[in-house]
Design brief:
heterodimer; A: alpha+beta; 60s Ribosomal Protein L30, Chain: A; Phosphoribosyl-aminoimidazole Synthetase, Chain A, domain 2; 2 domains; four-stranded mixed beta sheet; 9 helices; 13 strands; about 30% helix; globular; B: Rossmann fold; Rossmann fold; 3 domains; 18 helices
Amino acid sequence: MDDVILLAHGSGGRLSHDLVQKKLLPSLSNIMLSKLDDSAVFDASGRLAFTTDSYVVNPIFFPGGDIGRLAVCGTVNDLSMSGARPLYLSLSLIIEEGFSVSELERIVGSVKAAAEEAEVEIIAGDTKVVHHGQADRLFVNTSGIGIVAPGTDISGANARVGDKVILSGTIGDHGIAIVSQREGLKFSVAVESDCAPLSKLVAGMLEASHNIRCLRDPTRGGLATTLNELAGQSDVGIVIEEERIPVQSSVRAACEMLGFDPLYVANEGKLVAIVDADDAEKVLAEMRRNVYGGDAAIIGEVTESHRGTVLMRTKLGSSRLVDMLSGELLPRIC
Amino acid sequence: MKFLDEYQSSRLAAKLAHRISVSSKKPIRLMEFCGGHTHAILRHGIRQLVPRTVELLPGPGCPVCVTATSDLDRAIALARSPEVILTTFGDMMRVPGSYSSLQRAKAEGADVRVVYSTMDAIEMARVNPGKSVVFSGIGFETTAPTIAASIVKAQREGISNFHVLCSLKLTPPVMKALLDLGEVKLDGIICPGHVSVIIGSRPYEFIPLDHGVACVVSGFEPVDILLAISRLVAQIESGQPKVEIAYGRGVKPQGNSEALQLMEEVFRIDSADWRGMGVVPGSGLSIDPKYERFDADVVFADTLELALRNTPVIEPPGCRCGEVLRGVTTPPDCPLFGKGCTPEKPVGPCMVSSEGACAAHYQYGGHPSLLRAG
């Protein structure tokens, strides 16, 4: 029979100790974490970026990833979108009693792999166990610290008229992977989540150009919501070309079936960059050299008119508003 | 998805748009019955591709939108019943009833779950034998066959804790009611593609015959819709209205006999309460008495009576969804549009549903911030 997490695993006593020593530390061990002191202590100088995010994805295992990989990538990407090089993460687990220990090990293995790929270390952690029904299997929180190089100034408020909008690859993969797993939808070509750490992609871009104004990962709310945020923060208009936005054909098919617009479907391994027009091609070429930027494309530009809003030129040559997502994405009924 | 590319081809679309511009001489008014068409027309910017002579008006074909407030109140009342798991299509969650919404009832502790198909609700009934699983059965001839199939399945497999709260509606009778009302003069109707897959095109024959209004059944891709418009323009210009199918890959004149038989087996034709239209005789379906043990209105008659006693139906004040659904008012003409009524804080269902005309107008253009920017 598979071992399960008991309330006693979170009590702070021997079982807690065993869980940390035997199940968590072997995967995550590094000099700072292994000390098991109350805080991690480290040297840092310069400008630091700090962020936190909680992960409650359902299902916790999905095609292309799991909650562990997601929790590392999400926080690494939030740091990267500030132009920071991610250094350290914390990892908090809130586990529902009865959760399978082997599944927990699998998830911690994913955390380790993703952290290695992103070249970050987990230097602080916490484990809590809650009563059955008080959490949905497993919730994860990660916080992260990164360092911002001198001269780097990335902000959603920095877009200027004439800048180009670059998207790092196909949209909607994560959302469709989750929804098809959750709802048991079968597609002839399985859609995998794009969940990935973008720190190296960003490092390459920052090296290629000093004129990257905004970086943002279009997670919940999708590309449409992210572009609206940028247009609002920078008080500029944005025009995108439908024809240039890469969407996998299987994602498009699933969206047609479910009544979703890929522009609003979540991504976990994509970024939007707003870049000075003169540097756009150079940055694009650099992005395409990275494994997570192979399908990168210039999808539009920043305009003087219709400030605060996003317009899209459709494939048919007409144009329409691209609004923020409101409410939840729900399937259509006929 | 090669077939999709073809129906989204800008080259074909430009060709059809050109054909419409050349052949359209007199100003005409077309109604797209189906909310899916309204959505596609705005999403693809089709209004910009057709000449000013062609006016496109959204119609009543949005299942969530036409669901009467009283039907919502019944669903909410049942959801609050402790022994009930209420299952529903997602859009219904946020529509305000007289006093609450399903979303709010859920937040307050009611067991409300979104399902993608009636078969999910059946499965839920199977794994929750101690609960009554009620499916909120809304929609047109598109959802009716699957709801019928689920009732037959429940009967066959002895799943006695599955029930349907039926407020299904029929398309041709409400088209007739709308045309009989005569509030809006129509020259042509873009007939619903998915409904017609089930019922075929023959049930529309009375429309050109009795009302002189042209009918073309259309699919949902931009090229489909432009093709339907071009056929309608041709019919109207030639003065010979008839029923045509411009969605041959999905629709046959006789419809889908298997689905129709299933509907006939499980349902009987009844009057239905429509938002905006009131009670229209013969425009709805109710569950046939031989399947009454699956009919939530029968099984929970006492619960509903008790819950709804002394709670009169209250329509949202100022909401013009009814007029929008009849084609009398366009969404931007409603004083609440984009001000008191937005997708975040909807007053009426047309702003909630992904097929609602107000939501489509708000999402794809014509909403105040864009108009201001000119």
